[in-house]
Amino acid sequence: MSTTRYTVPFGSAMIDTTVTSDTAAADEWLRVGTKCLVLQMFYANRVPAAIRGLLGDPAVRCVGEDAAKLSDDYGLVCAAPVDLEGRCNEYLGIGGLGRRRLGLKGYAREVLGMTMEKPWHVTMSNWERRQLEVAQVQYACIDAYVSYKLGERLLDN
């Protein structure tokens, strides 16, 4: 099992990022602070109890679009998932049937004023690779960071 660390720049932020399938490294990461963890669940031999506890804590809001996937694929339950799309649409005053979905990139632009790249070749790349490409790590990290920043903006208002 390998663990790789990156510093991912996005806007004015420098995001310390750890990519691993090593559950011991994931446990250690949770004790360090607010950083980005890309836990390669496909290769992890178990889900660390600390991550189960974090996601299962009703005081911790899971902001993003993958709560259902975590539950369906890994049996991980987010006790307090946030409908990010609904919150963003409410904030922007848009909604209803037939509207075009903005997606995370659009919400980053419209709610946060941030420009976010989501190259198609990275979106459609092999995310089950043992060693993720740097572009994949950046993509995953920036997705998580933007979801966090959207939650911070929308849930504090």
Automatic annotation (TrEMBL):
This is 3'-5' exonuclease domain-containing protein. One of its GO terms (molecular function) is 3'-5' exonuclease activity. SUPFAM superfamilies: Ribonuclease H-like. It comes from the Eukaryota. Keywords: Hydrolase, Nuclease. It comes from Hordeum vulgare subsp. vulgare. GO terms for cellular component: cytoplasm; nucleus. The keyword Hydrolase applies. PANTHER family: 3-5 EXONUCLEASE, EMB|CAB82946.1-RELATED.
